[in-house]
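Re: that chain you flagged

S.,

Sorry for the slow reply, it's been a week of failed gels. I finally had a moment to sit down with the sequence you sent. For the record, here it is as I used it:
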Amino acid sequence: MSFNLTSLIPGVGEAYEHVATYGAVATLLIFTGVASKSGMKKKGEGAVTPDGHLSSRGLFEMIVEFIQGLVDMVIGHHGRKFIPMFSAIFLIVFANNLVGVLPGMTPATEQINTTLAMGTFMFLTYNFLGIKENGMAYLKHFLGPLLWLAPLMVVIELISHIVRPLSLGLRLANVMTGDHTVVGIFTDLVPLILPIPFYLLGMFVCFVQAFVFTLLSMVYISLATAHEH
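Prediction finished late last night. Pasting the structure tokens below so you have them in one place:
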């Protein structure tokens, strides 16, 4: 297991370093979000005019616009009420992935317990939203289109849904573990210059994995909240 600075926190150790890392990243995002929101309290044109410099407010606005475009494409305009949730999911996954780029840190998303918990959260969320949106009629899609195939379709659908949180968690954890391992190997071999391309590639992988996790979550919620016509 790679060394992580959060393991030095009293009471944390190696067993809970991923929990401490995840908590630290979440806390930092909350404080950054609060600070960015304070910049939106301006009146008049200042409330809608973009900042003339790089700022946390501009970064959050860019991410929200990016997520809005994805929501409109995957779910439709009626899915815009989920934009805050998807933005939070993307940010927490992306930020935790990026932690692995910092010396002395390993990403919380490298730990399978963390990613399976996130996958389970999405599993519970899309099923809850499906029942909330369609009532008990949501359960009809488990039966399939033909009544005589219902027993077989129930088994297939249950397996399909159970695999979803596992696939979300395993994909994210395994890719981040591989990425961090590759960067670590080249850093140990040649500490200067050579690891730079791998750091850049690692940052790209961090973004892609956050994007894939968020996009699949959108697809699951889109399927769960769709109305039959």
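What I noticed first: The chain has a mean pLDDT of 83.

Talk soon,
D.
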